[in-house]
Amino acid sequence: DAGVIQSPRHEVTEMGQEVTLRCKPISGHNSLFWYRQTMMRGLELLIYFNNNVPIDDSGMPEDRFSAKMPNASFSTLKIQPSEPRDSAVYFCASRPLAGALDTQYFGPGTRLTVL
Amino acid sequence: GESVGLHLPTLSVQEGDNSIINCAYSNSASDYFIWYKQESGKGPQFIIDIRSNMDKRQGQRVTVLLNKTVKHLSLQIAATQPGDSAVYFCAEPGASSYKLIFGSGTRLLVRP
Question: Per-residue b/e over B56-91, b at no fewer than 16 CB within 10 Å?
């Protein structure tokens, strides 16, 4: 079975440019999460979707960050404009159901470097 | 975010020995715990989970022990192999049902 798919795997861009990260969750999973991981702050939840609807975006750093989930098999995380402090690994994860007792399955991540 | 910064303790073990990775959790009402393994350059990978009504659960070469009295969780890896080298995180549900609180992680190094 294919796991969570993310693209690109690596992105290097210059400050001020727009960055779009993509995620395809595991088929049949109803919940999708975007995380950011840095050495200083560990894994941070950015936004959570359930049945394609954003439920909690309290972790989104600021208005420069936005996320969409137009259908059950695709989500994007956009940063516009990007800044060097956005450099991190961004993970997408999905979960079968919305209940608490369900494991989240992570994608391989996108390593973003903003110069 | 609901996670602790990465000040990683490191456990170094000889190949073939058993490894024990510990985790202290914060919420005595947590009813579910998960162990994740994160290899360099990869996303966290699910290893094993345990419900709070259990004290022990075994998988392939891994065993998770739960001590609710002292809010402690451990992951035991039998006959540790080089491929086990990674950072290991425990996780518990957060205040909201969909959130996971990740521990700070432990780096496991396997010496050949």
Answer: eeeeeebbbbbeeeeeebbbbbeebeeebbbbbbbb
DSSP β-ladder status, B86-93 and A105-106: unpaired
Each residue of A4-39: pLDDT tens digit?
Answer: 999 999 999 999 999 999 999 999 998 999 999 998
Which of B23, B98, B104 should one mutate to test binding to chain A, selecting the residue with the greatest count of A CBs within 10 A? B98
CA distance B112 to chain A (A): 27
Question: In angstroms, rounded to a whole number, what is the distance separating the alpha carbons of residues B41 and A91?
Answer: 11
SS3 assignment, position B51: strand
Q: What is the pLDDT of residues B62-89, one digit of tens each?
A: 999 999 999 999 999 999 999 999 999 9
How far is the alpha carbon of B15 from chain A, nearest alpha carbon, in Å?
27
Q: Which of residues 39-78 of A touch B (CB under 8 A)?
A: 39-45, 48, 50, 55-56, 59
pLDDT in tens, B4-50: 344 689 999 999 999 999 999 888 888 889 999 999 989 999 999 99
B34–chain A Cβ distance below 8 A for any pair: yes
